[in-house]
Inverse folding.
């Protein structure tokens, strides 16, 4: 094949993009060194990689030449999958690093010679640790291969190859991350030593710590890294005793692995390391476990303070052994205690919780105050209402801490939102109680009539605008609508011919067939309806009843037949798709794939459905992109429009929801559904952020429900946020954190909603 | 006209069902009974709603007539119908009429499964009229003070087609059930499953972990009923891992990744 022909093919693959000709020439020259079969195989993956990143695609082709020489072609799809995974995780650099060494990074882990790769373990382990901890923890591979945690994310080495068997490496991964969870749950990162601990140190070494933080305490020792190691060891003792109590199966299975590792480290380093190995071995051996079980019968294991009491003694013991600053076994098994990162994360979480609590509590007080005002029969609205809020707020503001927490517990029993209850529970778990300052701040905020911070649409006071569709917007601070505030324009998406549709259909061929079958069951819910005037068979029960009635002197019913009825699914659904710029990359691609899958299977049900995308910037330009009207036939044009969905600007959710509600209102379907698919919080350029945006979206959804439109949302995000429940209402949303599962989850969600 | 003799005594509960209160639900239900108000029990599957009703029936000394609702349930199925016996038409009370006639407790389990046009027959019974018109008999029954109507449903269902009509919902005193706290649940599993405390505690820990997966794609975590089931398997000599796998996690999901994660939890706990 000549170069021109190849070039033509390449441009076809990447259509509608038009890359520089010299770049294409260069890449095709590199490919010239491979055989035609290999070249075709390499190019077959271009449509999958090109939309993700053009630079990645060029790198892929350049390295691909070496790759097809290094392994059989059947492995190519797996290599591409791992490249894309690396890219999503760590960007272009990480993907390039991965491609650079094919043998080490791809082939060795694949053949099990190098244990388990992070990518293989993460799905299962993430769910495992979230279940075990009950916390929204995340897992990540540490680029430097270190093991540590900032208390919200646990960082682990990217590859585990300490043991020959894959299962052993997987188990060891599990042990490592469970140990890190142990440090989190026991608070090893933010322990505050007692005054007695400090005075002991001053007496010994004459050093004074600048604060009562654990890191300052440890820095008072003549050899702070050693002191840290000792502290780490003592904390591990507490962790292992916790694991023995709560997860005895894990300790039973994984401790022998750790002991094998200890045996491997014997004789490698200094006497001090040997001593540490002795201590670890003692902690992990079953005999020790038995003693501890005896100890634990009575209570809940050793306390942290006991640990610190023993610290100086153990420090001295190890200090006397010869040794230096080796990393040693502790870094492999226990990792590193990063006090600074953990403290920053804890403070960040605490601050976030504080803000959420204050704003939600203020909203709650505001709401309650208003209700009380109404109940007292005061003048509705206007100053009377505001006064009632002020009065009740001030009355509350004067209460002491004890009484304030009484309000909270009272609130808990009344109409407190789940979000407020959850954040309160977190604060109590962290600080022991809700600080009075938080409550005072909330009371103050409620009294001022504002129930949140960080909102101020910048064009306050400007006149309303005229446009094709104009919608009001809810301003929760004024508890009212801003009249004719947003202009919405319906737009057409350009029709694009691309390989997106056939590729997606190919990729999900198996899934489409399976889901189609499930959806067919929806459509053909054959149901025998009894007591019909006409039908296929006699309804025996009805005949007996009619006979009975006749004998009893009643006019018997003439509804004596059974008929097979196909359920009429009188459903109209509109899908609203987020087209904001945050959906760029894989998220956007999978959203599109989910839509293709959905259309393919929706056709089977015969339900009426429409698809719209939305984006825009500022209130004067909310854009709604028409992809499929409710009654439009699904065909090539629609597929091309789906292919043309792409990231645009911001996410102002209120206006499109109101617009689609209006469209649904105009239909005569028995069940009207509005399903929004988005990847995060509503947000726009002109101050449509945080509480303001959440409250407006919430209001738009409430309006929709008010006119008989059932509104549901599917949110794609790294983790679930509490505002989701507030915004959408409990049970009205699902949250998808594994983006790969979106296409399946979306169709399942629809099936669940309508069956 | 003859009426078939139906034995109400069969519905009486003689021995005390095992029930540990989670809060003040017993007092609330007793108060509702005294005030002749109907009860709505809501909560996830297997958290003890049906057991609670059995306990209440025993406590009040009233027969309990339970109807498991399904979408083919007709009004005649609830109220009653004529049957032909020999040359005679004989009236057979439906469970609702039977309960009203004898001052029993009528419990409609999973009421959202019944069609909405069927459930409206309970409306006149569920408000202050407490009446049940039986057209075919030409009678209007007024429920005696001992009669109580109770319904249950699981709000976890997300299908919009399966929700209670507000006009039905707003006639009831609602009791919300959740899974019991760990210590309470431990005692329940111990007593019902007849296993030792340590194993009960481990099962409860497993349940807690599966319930944490709700945000990660698991529709519902393990119910107390499933834990008891696993305990019963264990008592029959099934090994602990198989008992948990077949008794708990396999009944929760088919998703291989979630199953894998829960398998890791079992391996870690036991």
């Amino acid at each position: 094949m000549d170069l021109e022909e190849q070039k033509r093919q390449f441009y076809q693959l990447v259509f509608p993009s038009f890359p520089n000709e010299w770049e294409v020439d260069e890449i095709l020259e590199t490919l010239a060194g491979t055989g035609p079969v290999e070249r075709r195989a390499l190019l077959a993956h271009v449509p999958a990689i090109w939309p993700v990143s053009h630079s990645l695609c060029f790198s892929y082709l350049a390295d691909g030449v070496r790759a097809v020489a290094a392994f059989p072609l059947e492995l190519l799809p797996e290599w591409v999958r791992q490249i894309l995974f690396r890219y999503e995780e760590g960007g272009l650099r990480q993907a390039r690093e991965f491609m650079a060494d094919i043998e080490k990074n791809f082939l060795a882990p694949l053949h099990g010679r190098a244990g388990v790769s992070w990518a293989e373990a993460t799905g299962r382990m993430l769910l495992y640790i979230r279940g075990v901890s009950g916390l929204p923890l995340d897992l990540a591979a540490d680029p430097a291969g270190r093991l540590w945690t900032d208390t919200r994310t646990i960082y682990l080495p990217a590859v585990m190859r300490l043991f020959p068997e894959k299962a052993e490496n997987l188990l060891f991964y599990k042990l490592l991350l469970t140990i890190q969870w142990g440090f989190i749950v026991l608070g090893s990162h933010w322990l505050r030593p007692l005054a007695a601990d400090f005075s002991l140190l001053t007496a010994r070494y004459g050093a004074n710590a600048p604060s009562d933080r654990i890191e300052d305490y440890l820095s008072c020792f003549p050899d702070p890294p050693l002191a840290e190691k000792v502290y780490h060891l003592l904390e591990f003792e507490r962790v292992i005793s916790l694991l023995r109590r709560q997860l005895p199966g894990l300790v039973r299975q994984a401790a022998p692995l750790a002991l094998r590792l200890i045996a491997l480290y014997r004789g490698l380093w200094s006497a001090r390391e040997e001593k540490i190995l002795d201590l670890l071995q003692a902690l992990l051996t079953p005999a020790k476990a038995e003693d501890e079980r005896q100890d634990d019968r009575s209570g809940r294991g050793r306390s942290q303070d006991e640990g610190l009491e023993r610290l100086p003694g153990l420090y001295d013991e190890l200090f006397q052994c010869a040794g230096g600053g080796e990393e040693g076994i502790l870094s492999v098994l226990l990792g590193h205690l990063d006090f600074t990162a953990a403290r920053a994360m804890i403070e960040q979480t605490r601050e976030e919780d504080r803000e959420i609590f204050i704003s939600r509590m203020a909203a709650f007080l505001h709401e309650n105050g208003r209700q009380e005002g109404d109940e007292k029969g005061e003048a509705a609205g206007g100053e009377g209402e505001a006064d009632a809020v002020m009065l009740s707020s001030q009355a509350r503001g004067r209460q002491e801490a004890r009484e304030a927490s009484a309000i909270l517990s009272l609130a808990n029993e009344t109409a407190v939102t789940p979000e407020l209850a959850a954040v309160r529970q977190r604060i109590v778990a962290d600080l022991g109680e809700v600080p009075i300052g938080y409550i005072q701040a909330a009371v103050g905020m409620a009294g001022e009539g504002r129930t949140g911070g960080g909102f101020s649409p910048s064009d306050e006071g400007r006149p309303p605008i005229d446009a094709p569709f104009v919608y009001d917007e809810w301003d929760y601070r004024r508890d009212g609508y801003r009249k004719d505030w947003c202009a919405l324009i319906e737009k057409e998406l350009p029709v694009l011919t691309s390989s997106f549709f056939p590729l997606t259909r190919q990729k999900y061929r198996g899934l489409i067939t399976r889901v189609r079958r499930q959806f067919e069951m929806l459509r053909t819910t054959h149901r025998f309806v009894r007591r019909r005037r006409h039908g296929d068979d006699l309804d025996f029960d009805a005949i007996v009843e009619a006979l009975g009635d006749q004998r009893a002197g009643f006019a018997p019913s003439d509804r004596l037949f059974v008929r097979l009825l196909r359920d009429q699914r009188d459903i109209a659904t509109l899908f609203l798709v987020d087209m904001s710029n945050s959906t760029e990359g894989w998220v956007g691609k999978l959203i599109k794939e989910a839509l293709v899958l959905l259309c393919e299977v929706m056709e089977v049900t015969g339900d009426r459905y429409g698809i719209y995308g939305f984006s825009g910037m500022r209130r004067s330009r909310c854009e709604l992109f028409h992809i499929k009207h409710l009654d439009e036939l699904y065909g090539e044009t629609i597929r091309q429009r789906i292919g043309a969905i792409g990231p645009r600007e911001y996410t102002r959710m209120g206006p499109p929801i109101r617009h689609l509600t209006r469209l649904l209102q105009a239909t005569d379907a028995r069940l009207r559904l509005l399903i929004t698919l988005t990847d995060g919080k509503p947000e726009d350029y002109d101050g449509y952020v945080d509480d303001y945006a959440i409250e407006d979206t919430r209001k738009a959804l409430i309006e929709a429900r008010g006119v008989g439109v059932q509104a549901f949302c599917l949110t794609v995000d790294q983790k679930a946020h509490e505002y989701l429940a507030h915004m959408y209402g409990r049970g009205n949303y699902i949250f998808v954190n594994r983006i790969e599962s979106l296409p399946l989850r979306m169709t399942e969600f629809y099936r669940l909603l309508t069956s | 006209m003859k009426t078939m003799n139906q034995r109400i005594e069969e519905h009486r509960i003689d021995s005390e069902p095992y029930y540990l209160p989670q809060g003040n639900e017993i007092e609330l239900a007793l108060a509702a009974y005294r005030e002749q108000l109907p009860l709505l029990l809501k909560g996830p599957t297997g958290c003890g709603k049906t057991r609670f009703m059995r306990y209440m029936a025993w406590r009040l000394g009233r027969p309990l007539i339970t109807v498991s609702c399904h979408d083919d349930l007709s009004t005649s199925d609830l109220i009653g119908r004529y049957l032909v016996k020999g040359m005679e038409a004989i009236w057979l009370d439906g469970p609702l009429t039977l309960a009203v006639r004898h001052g029993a407790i009528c419990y409609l389990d999973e009421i959202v499964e019944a069609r909405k046009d069927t459930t409206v027959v309970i409306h006149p019974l569920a408000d202050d009229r407490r009446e049940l018109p039986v057209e075919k008999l030409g009678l209007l029954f007024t429920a005696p003070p001992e009669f109580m109507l109770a319904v249950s449903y699981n709000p976890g269902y997300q299908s919009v087609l399966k929700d209670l009509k507000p006009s039905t919902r707003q006639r009831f005193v609602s009791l919300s059930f959740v899974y019991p706290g760990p210590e309470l649940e431990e005692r329940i599993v111990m007593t019902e499953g007849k296993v030792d405390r340590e194993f009960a505690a481990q099962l409860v820990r497993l349940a807690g972990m599966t319930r944490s997966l709700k945000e990660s794609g698991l529709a519902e975590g393990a119910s107390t009923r499933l834990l008891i089931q696993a305990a019963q398997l264990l008592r029959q000599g099934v090994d602990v891992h198989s008992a948990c796998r077949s008794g708990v996690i396999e009944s929760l999901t088919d998703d291989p990744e979630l199953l894998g994660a829960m398998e890791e939890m079992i391996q870690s706990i036991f």
Notes: Chain B touches chain A at residues 1, 72, 74, 76, 81-84, 87-91, 136, 155-156, 158-161, 205, 208-210, 212-213, 215-217, 257-258, 260-262, 264-270 (CB under 8 Å).
